[in-house]
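Field reference: "sequence" (input) and "structure" (output). Example, Sn-glycerol-3-phosphate ABC transporter ATP-binding protein UgpC:
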Amino acid sequence: MADIVLDKVSKSFPDGTVAVRDVDLEIADGEFVILVGPSGCGKSTTLNMIAGLEDITGGELRIAGERVNDKAPRDRDIAMVFQSYALYPNMTVRENMAFPLRLAKLDKETIEQKVSEAAKVLELTALLDRKPANLSGGQRQRVAMGRAIVRSPKAFLMDEPLSNLDAKLRVQMRTVVSRLQKKLGTTTVYVTHDQTEAMTLGDRVVIMRGGAVQQVGPPQELYDNPANLFVAGFIGSPSMNFLHAAVEDGKLRTAVGDVPLGDRIRRELTAEDAPRELILGIRPEHFEDASLIDDETRARGTEFEAPVEIVESMGSDKYVYLTVEGERASAAELEELAADVGTEDLTGSGSSLVTRLSAESTVAEG
Ligand code: ATP
Protein backbone atom coordinates (compact mmCIF):
# COMPACT_ATOMS: atom_id res chain seq x y z
CA MET A 1 0.00 0.00 0.00
CA ALA A 2 1.37 3.42 -0.89
CA ASP A 3 -1.10 5.87 0.45
CA ILE A 4 0.17 9.36 1.25
CA VAL A 5 -1.16 11.21 4.28
CA LEU A 6 -0.53 14.85 5.12
CA ASP A 7 -1.48 15.57 8.70
CA LYS A 8 -1.51 19.33 9.43
CA VAL A 9 1.54 19.76 7.25
CA SER A 10 3.01 23.28 7.21
CA LYS A 11 6.01 25.02 5.73
CA SER A 12 7.54 28.26 6.96
CA PHE A 13 10.64 29.52 5.17
CA PRO A 14 13.45 31.14 7.18
CA ASP A 15 12.40 34.62 5.96
CA GLY A 16 9.03 34.12 7.68
CA THR A 17 7.00 33.26 4.58
CA VAL A 18 4.37 30.68 5.44
CA ALA A 19 4.04 28.84 2.12
CA VAL A 20 1.82 26.00 3.33
CA ARG A 21 -0.39 25.96 6.40
CA ASP A 22 -2.01 23.01 8.15
CA VAL A 23 -2.70 20.94 5.06
CA ASP A 24 -4.70 17.78 5.78
CA LEU A 25 -4.92 15.38 2.88
CA GLU A 26 -5.33 11.63 2.51
CA ILE A 27 -4.32 10.25 -0.85
CA ALA A 28 -5.36 6.64 -1.32
CA ASP A 29 -3.15 3.95 -2.79
CA GLY A 30 -3.36 4.19 -6.58
CA GLU A 31 -5.19 7.49 -6.56
CA PHE A 32 -4.45 10.32 -9.02
CA VAL A 33 -4.66 13.63 -7.16
CA ILE A 34 -4.17 17.08 -8.66
CA LEU A 35 -2.96 20.09 -6.68
CA VAL A 36 -4.17 23.24 -8.40
CA GLY A 37 -4.31 26.93 -7.58
CA PRO A 38 -2.96 30.31 -8.60
CA SER A 39 0.73 31.16 -8.64
CA GLY A 40 2.29 31.20 -5.18
CA CYS A 41 -0.51 29.22 -3.51
CA GLY A 42 1.93 26.62 -2.19
CA LYS A 43 1.34 23.68 -4.51
CA SER A 44 5.00 23.14 -5.49
CA THR A 45 6.12 23.51 -1.89
CA THR A 46 3.58 20.86 -0.86
CA LEU A 47 4.82 18.50 -3.58
CA ASN A 48 8.44 19.17 -2.66
CA MET A 49 7.71 18.30 0.96
CA ILE A 50 6.21 14.97 -0.14
CA ALA A 51 9.33 14.40 -2.26
CA GLY A 52 11.64 15.35 0.60
CA LEU A 53 13.14 18.26 -1.36
CA GLU A 54 11.86 20.71 1.27
CA ASP A 55 11.86 20.21 5.04
CA ILE A 56 8.50 20.02 6.74
CA THR A 57 8.29 22.63 9.50
CA GLY A 58 5.00 21.47 11.03
CA GLY A 59 2.78 18.40 11.03
CA GLU A 60 3.44 14.89 9.82
CA LEU A 61 3.83 13.22 6.44
CA ARG A 62 3.21 9.48 6.13
CA ILE A 63 3.87 7.36 3.06
CA ALA A 64 2.51 3.81 3.18
CA GLY A 65 1.81 4.27 6.89
CA GLU A 66 5.33 5.30 7.79
CA ARG A 67 6.30 8.76 9.08
CA VAL A 68 8.81 10.12 6.57
CA ASN A 69 9.33 13.73 7.71
CA ASP A 70 13.03 13.13 8.24
CA LYS A 71 13.64 10.53 5.58
CA ALA A 72 15.99 11.45 2.70
CA PRO A 73 14.35 11.78 -0.74
CA ARG A 74 16.16 8.72 -2.14
CA ASP A 75 14.80 6.56 0.70
CA ARG A 76 11.15 7.49 0.07
CA ASP A 77 10.85 5.36 -3.08
CA ILE A 78 9.05 7.98 -5.12
CA ALA A 79 9.83 9.37 -8.55
CA MET A 80 9.51 12.95 -9.60
CA VAL A 81 8.80 14.40 -13.06
CA PHE A 82 9.58 18.08 -13.60
CA GLN A 83 8.49 20.69 -16.10
CA SER A 84 12.11 21.03 -17.25
CA TYR A 85 12.43 17.25 -18.03
CA ALA A 86 15.85 17.23 -16.28
CA LEU A 87 17.36 14.74 -18.76
CA TYR A 88 21.11 14.17 -19.02
CA PRO A 89 22.06 15.74 -22.39
CA ASN A 90 25.10 13.54 -22.99
CA MET A 91 23.20 10.29 -22.45
CA THR A 92 20.93 8.54 -24.94
CA VAL A 93 17.26 7.94 -24.21
CA ARG A 94 18.15 4.37 -23.19
CA GLU A 95 20.88 5.57 -20.82
CA ASN A 96 18.66 8.27 -19.34
CA MET A 97 15.95 5.74 -18.61
CA ALA A 98 18.40 3.18 -17.28
CA PHE A 99 20.11 5.65 -14.97
CA PRO A 100 17.95 5.21 -11.83
CA LEU A 101 18.19 1.43 -12.27
CA ARG A 102 21.99 1.56 -12.54
CA LEU A 103 22.05 3.63 -9.36
CA ALA A 104 19.93 0.96 -7.71
CA LYS A 105 22.58 -1.56 -8.90
CA LEU A 106 20.21 -3.80 -10.82
CA ASP A 107 21.82 -6.32 -13.15
CA LYS A 108 22.27 -5.49 -16.83
CA GLU A 109 19.62 -7.87 -18.09
CA THR A 110 16.92 -6.61 -15.71
CA ILE A 111 17.77 -3.02 -16.62
CA GLU A 112 17.51 -3.80 -20.32
CA GLN A 113 14.16 -5.49 -19.82
CA LYS A 114 12.65 -2.71 -17.68
CA VAL A 115 13.82 0.02 -20.05
CA SER A 116 12.39 -1.77 -23.05
CA GLU A 117 9.05 -2.31 -21.27
CA ALA A 118 8.80 1.37 -20.31
CA ALA A 119 9.84 2.43 -23.81
CA LYS A 120 7.07 0.28 -25.24
CA VAL A 121 4.41 1.77 -22.95
CA LEU A 122 5.52 5.29 -23.86
CA GLU A 123 6.12 4.57 -27.56
CA LEU A 124 9.80 5.42 -27.31
CA THR A 125 11.26 2.18 -28.66
CA ALA A 126 12.39 3.73 -31.95
CA LEU A 127 14.09 6.60 -30.15
CA LEU A 128 16.17 4.70 -27.60
CA ASP A 129 19.54 5.54 -29.17
CA ARG A 130 18.90 9.25 -29.64
CA LYS A 131 20.19 12.03 -27.42
CA PRO A 132 17.68 14.47 -25.83
CA ALA A 133 18.81 17.33 -28.11
CA ASN A 134 17.41 15.38 -31.07
CA LEU A 135 13.96 14.91 -29.58
CA SER A 136 10.82 17.05 -29.61
CA GLY A 137 9.49 18.54 -26.36
CA GLY A 138 6.77 15.91 -26.12
CA GLN A 139 9.27 13.09 -26.69
CA ARG A 140 11.60 14.50 -24.03
CA GLN A 141 8.75 14.63 -21.56
CA ARG A 142 7.92 11.01 -22.36
CA VAL A 143 11.55 10.07 -21.66
CA ALA A 144 11.32 11.90 -18.33
CA MET A 145 8.20 9.88 -17.55
CA GLY A 146 9.94 6.71 -18.69
CA ARG A 147 12.78 7.38 -16.30
CA ALA A 148 10.23 7.77 -13.51
CA ILE A 149 8.31 4.58 -14.24
CA VAL A 150 11.22 2.16 -14.83
CA ARG A 151 11.86 1.61 -11.18
CA SER A 152 8.21 1.04 -10.22
CA PRO A 153 8.23 3.54 -7.35
CA LYS A 154 5.57 3.78 -4.64
CA ALA A 155 4.37 7.10 -6.06
CA PHE A 156 4.86 9.61 -8.86
CA LEU A 157 5.11 13.30 -8.12
CA MET A 158 4.70 15.56 -11.13
CA ASP A 159 5.28 19.31 -11.11
CA GLU A 160 3.68 21.00 -14.12
CA PRO A 161 5.13 18.34 -16.43
CA LEU A 162 3.29 19.59 -19.51
CA SER A 163 3.64 23.35 -19.22
CA ASN A 164 6.65 23.61 -21.56
CA LEU A 165 4.69 22.02 -24.39
CA ASP A 166 2.57 23.83 -26.94
CA ALA A 167 -1.20 23.72 -26.57
CA LYS A 168 -1.83 20.85 -28.99
CA LEU A 169 0.90 18.65 -27.58
CA ARG A 170 -0.32 19.36 -24.07
CA VAL A 171 -3.70 17.93 -24.96
CA GLN A 172 -2.07 14.82 -26.46
CA MET A 173 0.23 14.36 -23.48
CA ARG A 174 -2.71 14.69 -21.09
CA THR A 175 -4.06 11.49 -22.60
CA VAL A 176 -0.65 9.82 -22.32
CA VAL A 177 -0.34 10.72 -18.63
CA SER A 178 -3.90 9.68 -17.91
CA ARG A 179 -3.54 6.30 -19.65
CA LEU A 180 -0.16 5.66 -18.06
CA GLN A 181 -1.46 6.34 -14.58
CA LYS A 182 -4.46 4.07 -15.09
CA LYS A 183 -2.34 1.29 -16.56
CA LEU A 184 0.26 1.39 -13.78
CA GLY A 185 -2.18 2.21 -10.97
CA THR A 186 0.57 4.06 -9.10
CA THR A 187 -0.36 6.76 -6.57
CA THR A 188 0.24 10.08 -8.34
CA VAL A 189 0.29 13.67 -7.13
CA TYR A 190 0.29 16.19 -9.96
CA VAL A 191 0.76 19.95 -9.65
CA THR A 192 -0.67 22.34 -12.20
CA HIS A 193 -2.05 25.85 -12.44
CA ASP A 194 -4.12 24.81 -15.45
CA GLN A 195 -7.68 24.13 -14.46
CA THR A 196 -8.38 22.12 -17.62
CA GLU A 197 -5.64 19.67 -16.61
CA ALA A 198 -7.08 19.62 -13.11
CA MET A 199 -10.58 18.91 -14.36
CA THR A 200 -9.63 16.23 -16.88
CA LEU A 201 -6.76 14.29 -15.32
CA GLY A 202 -7.34 13.42 -11.72
CA ASP A 203 -9.63 11.33 -9.58
CA ARG A 204 -9.69 14.17 -7.08
CA VAL A 205 -8.65 17.78 -7.19
CA VAL A 206 -7.20 19.79 -4.29
CA ILE A 207 -7.72 23.51 -4.72
CA MET A 208 -5.21 25.65 -2.83
CA ARG A 209 -4.99 29.33 -2.10
CA GLY A 210 -2.58 31.21 0.15
CA GLY A 211 -0.99 27.98 1.39
CA ALA A 212 -4.31 26.51 2.53
CA VAL A 213 -6.61 23.89 1.03
CA GLN A 214 -9.91 25.39 -0.13
CA GLN A 215 -11.69 22.23 -1.22
CA VAL A 216 -10.95 18.63 -2.13
CA GLY A 217 -13.17 16.52 -4.34
CA PRO A 218 -13.79 14.90 -7.71
CA PRO A 219 -13.73 17.52 -10.50
CA GLN A 220 -17.48 17.44 -11.16
CA GLU A 221 -18.28 17.88 -7.49
CA LEU A 222 -16.10 20.98 -7.30
CA TYR A 223 -17.87 22.34 -10.37
CA ASP A 224 -21.36 21.56 -9.08
CA ASN A 225 -20.87 22.33 -5.39
CA PRO A 226 -18.04 24.78 -4.86
CA ALA A 227 -17.35 25.33 -1.17
CA ASN A 228 -16.70 29.05 -1.46
CA LEU A 229 -16.48 31.96 -3.88
CA PHE A 230 -12.84 31.33 -4.66
CA VAL A 231 -13.46 27.76 -5.81
CA ALA A 232 -16.61 28.82 -7.67
CA GLY A 233 -14.67 31.45 -9.61
CA PHE A 234 -11.56 29.33 -10.13
CA ILE A 235 -13.18 26.24 -11.65
CA GLY A 236 -14.94 26.70 -14.99
CA SER A 237 -14.04 28.61 -18.13
CA PRO A 238 -15.31 31.23 -18.79
CA SER A 239 -15.62 31.63 -15.06
CA MET A 240 -18.81 31.79 -13.04
CA ASN A 241 -20.64 35.13 -12.95
CA PHE A 242 -21.43 36.68 -9.60
CA LEU A 243 -24.44 38.80 -8.79
CA HIS A 244 -25.39 40.44 -5.51
CA ALA A 245 -28.64 39.11 -4.08
CA ALA A 246 -30.76 39.54 -0.97
CA VAL A 247 -33.40 37.35 0.62
CA GLU A 248 -36.60 39.29 1.22
CA ASP A 249 -40.11 37.96 1.86
CA GLY A 250 -39.04 34.46 0.87
CA LYS A 251 -37.71 35.74 -2.45
CA LEU A 252 -34.23 36.14 -3.81
CA ARG A 253 -33.91 39.69 -5.08
CA THR A 254 -31.26 40.72 -7.59
CA ALA A 255 -30.71 43.84 -9.67
CA VAL A 256 -32.09 41.97 -12.69
CA GLY A 257 -35.24 40.71 -11.00
CA ASP A 258 -36.51 38.20 -8.49
CA VAL A 259 -35.23 34.69 -8.81
CA PRO A 260 -37.76 31.86 -8.56
CA LEU A 261 -36.63 29.40 -5.91
CA GLY A 262 -37.14 25.68 -5.62
CA ASP A 263 -38.50 24.35 -2.31
CA ARG A 264 -35.23 23.05 -0.92
CA ILE A 265 -33.22 26.17 -1.61
CA ARG A 266 -36.06 28.38 -0.34
CA ARG A 267 -36.04 26.51 2.96
CA GLU A 268 -32.28 26.91 3.21
CA LEU A 269 -32.30 30.59 2.36
CA THR A 270 -35.16 31.51 4.66
CA ALA A 271 -33.87 29.57 7.66
CA GLU A 272 -33.40 31.70 10.75
CA ASP A 273 -29.63 31.68 10.69
CA ALA A 274 -29.27 31.98 6.90
CA PRO A 275 -27.45 35.09 5.63
CA ARG A 276 -29.69 37.79 4.17
CA GLU A 277 -27.10 39.15 1.75
CA LEU A 278 -25.79 36.66 -0.77
CA ILE A 279 -23.66 36.31 -3.83
CA LEU A 280 -25.45 34.40 -6.53
CA GLY A 281 -23.23 32.42 -8.89
CA ILE A 282 -24.39 31.83 -12.44
CA ARG A 283 -22.49 29.54 -14.77
CA PRO A 284 -22.17 30.92 -18.31
CA GLU A 285 -24.12 27.97 -19.71
CA HIS A 286 -27.11 28.83 -17.53
CA PHE A 287 -28.04 31.88 -19.56
CA GLU A 288 -30.50 31.31 -22.34
CA ASP A 289 -31.88 33.38 -25.18
CA ALA A 290 -35.37 34.36 -24.00
CA SER A 291 -36.75 34.41 -27.53
CA LEU A 292 -35.98 30.73 -27.98
CA ILE A 293 -37.27 29.09 -24.81
CA ASP A 294 -40.53 27.37 -23.97
CA ASP A 295 -42.97 28.56 -21.31
CA GLU A 296 -41.86 26.02 -18.77
CA THR A 297 -38.25 27.16 -18.93
CA ARG A 298 -39.41 30.77 -18.82
CA ALA A 299 -41.34 30.11 -15.61
CA ARG A 300 -38.23 28.63 -13.99
CA GLY A 301 -35.99 31.57 -14.83
CA THR A 302 -35.61 35.30 -14.54
CA GLU A 303 -35.88 37.32 -17.71
CA PHE A 304 -33.87 40.46 -18.23
CA GLU A 305 -32.23 42.56 -20.89
CA ALA A 306 -28.48 42.58 -21.12
CA PRO A 307 -26.48 44.52 -23.69
CA VAL A 308 -24.06 42.28 -25.56
CA GLU A 309 -20.47 43.50 -25.64
CA ILE A 310 -18.64 40.85 -27.63
CA VAL A 311 -19.36 37.49 -29.20
CA GLU A 312 -16.41 35.12 -29.21
CA SER A 313 -16.55 32.11 -31.49
CA MET A 314 -14.39 29.14 -30.58
CA GLY A 315 -15.66 26.92 -33.37
CA SER A 316 -18.13 24.65 -31.65
CA ASP A 317 -18.49 26.93 -28.60
CA LYS A 318 -19.71 30.49 -28.62
CA TYR A 319 -19.31 32.85 -25.71
CA VAL A 320 -21.34 35.99 -25.41
CA TYR A 321 -20.05 38.71 -23.12
CA LEU A 322 -22.82 40.82 -21.64
CA THR A 323 -23.17 43.72 -19.28
CA VAL A 324 -25.19 42.73 -16.25
CA GLU A 325 -25.54 45.10 -13.31
CA GLY A 326 -22.77 47.26 -14.77
CA GLU A 327 -20.38 44.32 -14.72
CA ARG A 328 -19.16 42.10 -17.49
CA ALA A 329 -20.77 38.69 -17.52
CA SER A 330 -20.18 35.75 -19.80
CA ALA A 331 -22.70 33.41 -21.29
CA ALA A 332 -22.10 30.24 -23.24
CA GLU A 333 -24.16 28.04 -25.54
CA LEU A 334 -26.03 30.91 -27.06
CA GLU A 335 -25.21 29.78 -30.59
CA GLU A 336 -28.62 30.57 -32.00
CA LEU A 337 -28.57 34.08 -30.63
CA ALA A 338 -25.11 34.72 -31.96
CA ALA A 339 -25.80 33.11 -35.31
CA ASP A 340 -29.18 34.76 -35.91
CA VAL A 341 -28.35 38.29 -35.02
CA GLY A 342 -24.69 38.41 -35.98
CA THR A 343 -21.96 39.98 -33.97
CA GLU A 344 -22.37 43.53 -35.12
CA ASP A 345 -26.12 43.82 -34.67
CA LEU A 346 -25.93 42.14 -31.32
CA THR A 347 -23.18 44.27 -29.90
CA GLY A 348 -24.56 47.19 -27.99
CA SER A 349 -28.18 46.16 -28.47
CA GLY A 350 -30.40 45.07 -25.62
CA SER A 351 -30.90 41.34 -25.88
CA SER A 352 -33.41 39.53 -23.81
CA LEU A 353 -31.91 36.72 -21.82
CA VAL A 354 -33.27 34.41 -19.27
CA THR A 355 -31.24 32.51 -16.72
CA ARG A 356 -32.17 29.19 -15.29
CA LEU A 357 -31.27 30.54 -11.89
CA SER A 358 -33.50 28.54 -9.63
CA ALA A 359 -32.71 25.10 -10.89
CA GLU A 360 -29.01 25.02 -11.38
CA SER A 361 -27.07 28.01 -10.20
CA THR A 362 -25.17 28.06 -6.99
CA VAL A 363 -25.58 30.39 -4.11
CA ALA A 364 -21.90 30.45 -3.44
CA GLU A 365 -21.40 32.37 -0.25
CA GLY A 366 -23.31 34.53 2.17
P1 ATP B 1 3.76 28.59 -8.97
O1 ATP B 1 2.55 28.09 -9.68
O2 ATP B 1 4.05 30.03 -9.30
O3 ATP B 1 4.95 27.70 -9.10
P2 ATP B 1 3.15 27.53 -6.32
O4 ATP B 1 1.73 27.45 -5.98
O5 ATP B 1 3.85 26.30 -6.72
O6 ATP B 1 3.38 28.68 -7.40
P3 ATP B 1 5.17 27.75 -4.27
O7 ATP B 1 6.34 27.70 -5.21
O8 ATP B 1 4.88 26.54 -3.49
O9 ATP B 1 3.86 28.19 -5.06
O10 ATP B 1 5.37 28.98 -3.29
C1 ATP B 1 4.49 29.26 -2.23
C2 ATP B 1 4.92 30.53 -1.53
O11 ATP B 1 6.18 30.31 -0.88
C3 ATP B 1 5.12 31.72 -2.45
O12 ATP B 1 4.64 32.86 -1.79
C4 ATP B 1 6.61 31.78 -2.64
O13 ATP B 1 7.04 33.10 -2.89
C5 ATP B 1 7.12 31.28 -1.29
N1 ATP B 1 8.44 30.64 -1.37
C6 ATP B 1 8.81 29.60 -2.16
N2 ATP B 1 10.10 29.26 -1.94
C7 ATP B 1 10.56 30.12 -0.99
C8 ATP B 1 11.82 30.30 -0.31
N3 ATP B 1 12.86 29.50 -0.57
N4 ATP B 1 11.91 31.28 0.61
C9 ATP B 1 10.87 32.08 0.89
N5 ATP B 1 9.65 31.96 0.30
C10 ATP B 1 9.49 31.01 -0.62
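The chain has two domains: 4-234, 241-365.
The first strand starts at residue 4 and ends at 12.
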